[in-house]
Design goal:
199 residues, alpha/beta, 7-stranded mixed β-sheet
Length: 199
């Protein structure tokens, strides 16, 4: 199942200055890889971007570029709430239901920012204004690459972004063993390796 509702995304993005990226509770490699990869891409486009995650994530992901700037919501709710309420646009990555944001749910619902969901899980909710959902995709990191192609941003994918996206693809495909792995998944992985990622 695929749902793409991005008709007015370009206009919303153009007028946005402050952007928040968040993901699901207990973030995994795909959640963190997509968040940190997208953060670097959007910053290269001149946006002020903050990644805020619901709770801590595993130490084996701390090597990802941008890790040192991630805000953990449960460790600083007041500061995080202020950033969320002042955001113009909020990206919700790697989750299909807002309840999966756990303690962040209340402030995310209260926020006036437009919401963008990019996700590959089954049965996505219809609450966001903008949605890019494809349940046949291997990972949200693969979707971030495809999203960049939609908007002509692939030239913004440098080695650091590629490391983030490759991490998410590898973890969510079980090192390319799961059935969601497609020829396109390998094609994108190859493009990321070409940017200097070391498998």
């Amino acid at each position: 199942m695929k749902e793409i509702r991005l008709d007015h995304f370009s206009e919303s993005f153009a007028k946005s200055e402050h952007i928040v990226i968040t993901n699901h509770t207990s973030p995994d490699g795909d959640a963190m890889g997509s968040a940190l990869g997208l953060q670097r891409i959007l910053r290269s486009l001149g946006k002020m971007v903050t990644v805020i995650v619901p709770n801590p994530y595993p130490k084996f992901l701390w090597h990802l570029p941008g890790n040192e700037e991630v805000m953990v919501y449960c460790e600083g709710k007041k500061a995080a709430n202020e950033i969320i309420l002042n955001a113009d646009l909020i990206f919700h990555l790697d989750y299909n239901a807002i309840s999966r944001s756990a303690d962040m749910m209340e402030i995310l619902v209260e926020a006036k920012a437009e919401s963008v969901v990019i996700d590959h899980h089954q049965q996505p909710e219809s609450w966001p204004k903008h949605i890019y959902s494809d349940t046949e995709m291997s990972s949200t990191c693969q979707m971030i690459y495809e999203f960049c192609e939609l908007y002509g941003w692939t030239d913004r994918i440098d080695k650091e972004v590629a490391e983030c996206l490759y991490t998410g693809i590898v973890t969510d495909t079980g090192s390319f063993k799961f059935s969601s792995t497609s020829a396109r998944t390998h094609e994108i992985a190859g493009a990321l390796l070409a940017r200097g990622v070391k498998p």
